[in-house]
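Following up on my earlier message about S-adenosylmethionine. Here are the inputs again, as you asked, copied directly from the submission form:
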Amino acid sequence: HLSKRLAAVAQFVPQDSIIADIGSDHAYLPIWLTEQNRLKGAIAGEVVAGPFESTQTHVNQWHLDQQIQVRLGDGVEVLDPTKDHVDCIVIAGMGGLLITEILTRGLDHLNGHERLVLQPNIMESTVRVWLNEHDYAIVDEAIVAEDGHIYEVIVGEPGASVAPLSESDHVFGPVLRQTQPNDFQLKWGTMLKKRRHLLQQLQNAQVVPIDKVKAVEHEIALIE
Ligand code: SAM
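Thanks, got it. Here's what our run produced:
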């Protein structure tokens, strides 16, 4: 049984793919996908000793060490682009900046054909800008609320014709701003209220911080 967040990630993993789950921790995702007969194989990467042991322990408990290779190392650097034949890389449950840093550091370790399924906890726009700048098309997106937080999933594919993204595409997501699911309305409705409240506070300050006011006004206009 997967959390809503990880289920939203799992839906974008193509049937019969070989995946790399980077920052796998408990390895819930590759274990669940393997149990559902969704994968041809999996690599679970971890860089921190504690989580790495947790990955190994869980994989062994499920007797899946033939199906899921657990590797210790930084980001996608655990991958060998000539031997591993990875079809899909998942990086979930980290900040957007960390996700893009991992991808940038490890570019040499990609075979160039992988679908990227990315689930930043914060700084989603950084992920979209990175994908756009590295010629990945954003082919799908999802948004789910769980335990008081709203998570976004962003799917990038190489090789497609990549249209430049607008500022609204970066902030809201090129797919999500078209489909506007309930949790999207919830996220941006809440954000709009918060920004309007902040703007009021800034305007009431003894010394009004003009630049900050302008930035918040711009954000409000975008959301509206
Ligand atoms: N991916 C799982 C999920 O979404 O439920 C676990 C998310 S957990 C919050 C983030 C994991 O990423 C941690 O276990 C951390 O050790 C790992 N991590 C952070 N930086 C990493 C890196 N550069 N390479 C590999 N793993 C990393």
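One observation from looking it over: The chain has a mean pLDDT of 96. Hope that helps, and feel free to reply on this thread.
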